[in-house]
Amino acid sequence: MYRGRRFLPVKSISKILPKTSGARLIDDKFTLLTYNMLSPHYMWPQVYKYVPDAFKDWQFRHHLLQKEILDVYRADIMCLQELTSYDYHQYWKGIFRRDFHYGTKFIAKTPPTYWTKKVNDMDGVGIFYNLDKFEFLSSSGIYLNDLLGTFDLKEIEYLQNKNIQLTDGAGKPTEEKSLLEILKSRNQVGLFVSLKHKDTGTIFVVVNTHLYWKYDEVKITQCMVIMRKLSKIIKNLLIGEKGITYNKMKVVFAGDLNSARDSLVVKFLKGEKFELGNINIINPMRPYLNRCLFDDIPEDYYVHTCYSGKLKGIFDYIWYHDTDFELTKVLTGSDVSQELEDANQFGLPNEKHPSDHIPVLAEFQIL
């Protein structure tokens, strides 16, 4: 069913589930998927030389994406990246609402200065959620280059004075720019959807993003923007929802963070405190996010989540707090590495996998 990948139990759950008055067991589990779909407009010829033309074809890849997302995985919550505005509005939004009773939200990036294609060819991130399991409460999207009100004067001063050595596509140094200038020129986005789980009444915020692919200082600052915005969203939810307190609110954060497991971004999300310049950095959402999926599974379950030629690694994450959710099953990824080795292939996409990333799929129990 999963093309050789295994959906394996992570922990045995001994908890007895409560019953409703109708003697129906409460369904306190849900599945969540995060997946970078690889926009057709990022199929750079110089990067994907190793991919045969037939597997670069967008119609071929789209057909495989449809089978994967609609038929094979179809998680209760899906966080998709590199989804183009055109594809979302012309295909995914309609089919999910019409055929599967899913709600959908999407935010597109703004086109960069070099963009020569149509505006609706620009990609963004989307969140899809099963309306049979969840009640939609609210949503908002942010542009990660909108720094107004996010940083104080001391922090802005640091961003202005911190210079970053830029590099070209081959990694060669080009020029230096301030961190603030780089941040303002980037077009990454974040999406927040607040949901109420119908069976348990649990309210949580689902966050999806795709961080910039270079420069650790840029990625961690973008992540700070997301976490500070998330803090405000939770405060607003607490005001609007009766009987909800801080300790009852939960968060799931997913996406392509373009960051390895030993990166500053991962350390920041785990709540480690460190300094950038003379600024103490700590995640304001650390009470809601203390671990990622890879902390709770055996190391041999995944080798990479991205197989983009020379660029390989674990870049796609699902974050949560272990007092809010328990990871019960996960779709393994090491099988894909074995597939590529057996076939003597350099990377993805290929005849079986439509993206250079693989879907990360997990089942959680609400605690």
UniProtKB/TrEMBL annotation:
One GO molecular-function entry: 3'-5'-RNA exonuclease activity
Top-rank taxon, per record: Eukaryota
Pfam families listed in its UniProt record: Exo_endo_phos
Annotated Endonuclease/exonuclease/phosphatase domain residues: 33-357
Protein name per Swiss-Prot or TrEMBL: Endonuclease/exonuclease/phosphatase domain-containing protein
Taxonomic lineage from the root: Eukaryota, Fungi, Dikarya, Ascomycota, Saccharomycotina
